[in-house]
């Protein structure tokens, strides 16, 4: 991670100790959140690193009490930017990506669930992962994703309805 020495923090609002504590407290959870969304550990590491770098560059404006929200919001937006950039470059190269088929038969429910979660729209997947896998409250998720609590609840509801319908199909679970 992007850990700093005491000489680098003289006129900043957040101290080196506070910054390093944020690295220790949130880096693993931040990494798990990103890697569950993009399924690429190397890209997830880069996004987490970028998030901490952005935190340090903007440390004067970040309230130490809201550093967790800042980090997850930054990681989310960085992840979305990378996904969009990759899609644009894929379109510009005129690549034809094979579409995933859900006609595969699975015997393991966790495989079915992973496939279903991957088919969710990005924002629904993100709020669902933050709520169900990471255990954040609706309010915390709203702060991280710049959404109202009502929007968060709607996205989670829609994601769960989709998952229930997807997993409930007899041809999926054989």
TrEMBL record:
Domain RNA polymerase sigma-70 region: residue ranges: 23-88
Residue limits of the RNA polymerase sigma factor 70 region 4 type domain?
A: 111-163
User: Which species expresses this protein natively?
Assistant: Tangfeifania diversioriginum
Q: What GO terms describe the biological role, i.e. biological process, of this protein?
A: DNA-templated transcription initiation
* UniProt entry tagged with the keyword Transcription regulation: yes
Entry protein name:
RNA polymerase sigma-70 factor, ECF subfamily
Tell me which InterPro entries the record gives.
Answer: RNA_pol_sigma-70-like, RNA_pol_sigma-70_dom, RNA_pol_sigma70_r2, RNA_pol_sigma70_r4_t2, RNA_pol_sigma_r2, RNA_pol_sigma_r3/r4-like, WH-like_DNA-bd_sf
Sorted alphabetically, which CDD domains does this protein's record hold?
Sigma70_r4
Single Gene Ontology MF annotation: sigma factor activity
Q: Which family does the entry's similarity section mention?
A: Belongs to the sigma-70 factor family. ECF subfamily.
Pfam hit, one: Sigma70_r2
Q: Which UniProt keywords apply?
A: DNA-binding, Sigma factor, Transcription, Transcription regulation
